[in-house]
Amino acid sequence: MIVASPKSVTELKNIIAGHKKVLFAGCGTCVTVCLAGGEREVSITAYAVRMACRLDKNPIEISQVTIERQCDNEFLKELAEPASQVDAILSFGCGAGVQAIAERFPNLPVYSALNTQFLGVLEGQATWTEKCIGCGDCVLAHFGGICPVTRCAKRLLNGPCGGSLKDRCEVAPDKPCAWQLIYERLKGIGQLDRLEEVVPPKDWSTAWYSGARKIVRKEHQV
Ligand code: SF4
Ligand code: SF4
């Protein structure tokens, strides 16, 4: 899922300070699961920002709505009516959701309430870890399903840097060395011989370094 974290109430108050009526728009998918931008978080944040604005003697009328997915035009039409009643939207979606709303409502200021962080998994209670940077050319098959592009601080594809200490990464000692994990995983599935293969340099043209990417699946178009 896409993992995001909330901006502070003070930051949000400052972002919307120049407006009188603002719609707080939640998203019911990834950011709901990571406890950052669903209906519950929108309600709690709306209450806190409303109070903070009142204390500043700058009351702002805040309305709320949460749609299924902000990154899907099919659901964005549900924002048309509530958006017509306000002079700005504060989106609790990920960066894609915020931009989708901004494109949909070209005459309305649209702001982000969250900091979009990464593609990750829920490891434990309220704990998420990054697993993928969306490089566009997945090489997980070489590495037993553990991504060195994301999880090795040096993005090494042909073995460890040699700096790890007791299975910890030398760059980030609070994290395991990705190559230790890869070794243990390949050993466990009987594929240690993969470590003898030389992995060629990665084709980074599929990653975002060449600008925003686009996918068109013609076989699914009618
Ligand atoms: S190789 Fe690329 S697509 Fe595959 S998990 Fe790693 S970053 Fe994601
Ligand atoms: S210690 Fe391991 S994870 Fe850290 S940079 Fe070196 S090889 Fe990569």
Question: Topology, pairings included?
Answer:
Layout: E1 2-6, H1 9-15, E2 21-27, H2 30-33, H3 39-55, E3 61-67, H4 73-76, H5 80-83, E4 88-91, H6 95-104, E5 110-112, E6 114-124, E7 127-132, H7 148-151, H8 178-188
Parallel strand pairs: 2-3, 2-4, 4-5
Antiparallel strand pairs: 1-6, 6-7
Helix pairs in contact: 1-3
Offer a concise description of the structure.
With 222 residues, the protein is α/β, with parallel strands linked by helices. Helices cover 27% and strands 19% of the residues.
Output mean pLDDT: 96
Helix content: 25-40%
Order of helices and strands: EHEHHEHHEHEEEHH
% residues in beta strands: 15-25%
CATH uppermost class of the largest domain: Alpha Beta
Features of the shown structure:
3-stranded antiparallel β-sheet, 222 residues, alpha/beta, 4-stranded parallel β-sheet, 2 domains, binds iron/sulfur cluster, Rossmann fold, 8 helices
